[in-house]
TrEMBL record:
Lineage of the species this protein comes from: Bacteria, Pseudomonadati, Pseudomonadota, Gammaproteobacteria, Alteromonadales
Naturally occurring in which organism (per UniProt): Alteromonas hispanica
Annotated protein name in UniProt: TIGR03643 family protein
InterPro entries to which the protein is assigned, alphabetical: CHP03643
Length: 86
């Protein structure tokens, strides 16, 4: 069972268009069907429906559908260090 922090991270990864379900399964042991259940449980109904419509069939959400040569699930600028002077 995932703790609250892990569930939050899985939801964040599932929400990201470029993170494939296979990456979530590799990191957290949740196959796509379990991720969908987690999303359904934790999102508002309308938000869940919008998410499902967006990710269904999306090439970037399934490693087997990705173009050859795409081997990472995030943009290089996605995890920039935030400045302490804000």
């Amino acid at each position: 069972m995932l703790d609250e922090e892990q569930q939050s991270r899985v939801i964040e990864m599932a929400w990201e268009d470029r993170t494939p379900f296979e990456a979530i399964e590799r990191l957290y042991g949740l196959p796509e069907k379990e991720v969908i259940k987690l999303m359904r449980k934790n999102l508002k109904q309308k938000t869940f429906k919008n998410w499902r419509a967006r990710v269904s069939g999306r090439k970037t959400k399934h490693a087997s559908l990705r173009p050859e040569g795409v081997d990472r699930g995030y943009c290089p600028s996605q995890y920039k260090v935030k400045s302490a002077n804000k």
